[in-house]
Design goal:
Length: about 200
């Protein structure tokens, strides 16, 4: 079941740190509670068609994740050398791929719920970690930490750390390695990501 979380959240996003944070922890935790409730507990169990579920999920996903911020991070140093057209195309396909992955895996959360265990500080004043656990049928609960960033008073998710593995860093490592080997660089990465879209 823990592998499910890694697959479900794979596309997502930023390093874990701990130090002082000015962001309101209670506000961040309330934000994640709403995301998990609306995005998992209610949406998965709703008596609606899969197409309607996908549409609602896409809206929720676009509202609650800062994919521009995440995409810039996971492309790493290649973001600086990419053209504006490449950046735009990368963010677009990255967004679509993540929405597709989450939507397809979402039903596997049916009957599951997140338990909240407070927050942890970040080195960035505008970011904080919301700590949750998901009870498993066997063994210890799965640890899921949500990195939340506040911009202009709005909370957005910028990384998820599952069982101490940052999915932002994982994506960044994979994408960097791919671009380094690809003859056509960033264009090759974009083409590869597009090939995974249905």
């Amino acid at each position: 079941m823990k592998k499910l979380f890694a697959i479900l959240f794979s596309a997502l996003f930023l390093t874990a740190h701990s130090a002082s944070a000015a962001i309101d922890g209670n506000k961040a935790e309330a934000f994640i509670k709403n995301v998990t409730s609306q995005g998992i507990e209610q949406l998965v169990n709703a008596d609606i068609s899969q197409s309607e579920r996908n549409a609602r999920f896409t809206k929720l996903f676009n509202q609650d994740l800062d994919l521009d911020f995440i995409g810039k991070f996971v492309l790493g140093r290649y973001w600086r050398t990419a053209s504006e057209a490449q950046r735009k195309e990368f963010i677009d396909v990255y967004r679509k791929l993540n929405i597709q992955t989450w939507s397809e895996r979402f039903n596997e959360f049916k009957g599951k719920h997140f338990e909240f265990a407070g927050t942890e500080k970040s080195q960035q004043d505008d970011q904080i970690f919301v700590v949750t656990q998901v009870p498993m049928q066997e063994g210890a609960p799965a640890s899921v930490k949500w990195r939340v960033k506040e911009t202009g008073g709005q909370m957005r998710i910028v990384d998820i750390i599952i069982e101490n593995v940052s999915l932002a860093l994982t994506a960044r490592s994979e994408y960097t390695a791919f671009v380094q080997k690809a003859p056509d660089g960033v264009d090759g990465l974009i083409k590869n990501l597009k090939s995974k879209l249905k």
